[in-house]
Amino acid sequence: MSHPFTLTLSCAERPGIVHAVSSFLFEHGCDIVEHQQFDDPLRGQLFLRTAFVCAEDSDVDRLSQAFGAVADEFGMSYRVAGDQPERVLVMVSKLGHCLNDLVFRWRAGNLGGELVAVVSNHEDLRPMAEAAGLPFVHVPVTPATKRDAEARLLELVDEHRVDLVVLARYMQVLSDETCAALYGRAINIHHSFLPGFKGAKPYHQAFDRGVKLVGATAHYVTPELDEGPIIEQEVIRIDHTHDPRALATVGQDAEALALSRAVRWHSERRVLLNGHSTVVFR
User: Which residue is catalytic, options 226, 239, 243, 253?
Assistant: First the structure.
């Protein structure tokens, strides 16, 4: 029986890296089934993703420990992962289009991750979550309870053994401390009009300005609001016939598409952080 694994790594660019990786896999009886790499000449960094199978009985811990010698030689940051799906917790407020799309793709088996719970500061989307068989946890947020609410969120992350937190139009700003705790494993979605069209009605502002493109951006959450490393963006062309309601509908489509792709690529270990940006092996 073949056991699938994925190796992702980054390190300073130098000769011999790919040879060292392929030699290691050969010596451990592994067969490469997919390999992608990116050499960043501006930063002098190499990024690599290799999917492989092992015929012999092996596991993530043993492979990761054995690869440590190679990683030390080249100064690599690396991760060996098995085929267990990422466990995903979704955070929402009142808008349900992104949650609905994630649930649909999860049920269809093409989300890449496993939805395990839905957390919200409102009760509006409880029926949608429970209809999908997902636990729904209501965590109200006020200025006075914000710290306790975020502590509860982190407790839920631990309780459900969550690998990825998805802010699917969750209309609360996470504190710097929570952003740091979830660094590299929390994804947010917002309309790409930011920061040009701020406030509660960005699509009305866009209509007033006669925009010709509607977009959305999926990015990692950082303390810098809406400035985290970008994973995916979706753009849809519109025209003067789109009123604010039509713009919002098109915008929601863009948000759902960008977010689902970002979740899938992250869950498939296709996204590597590169400073303030990302390398995405599609």
Answer: 226
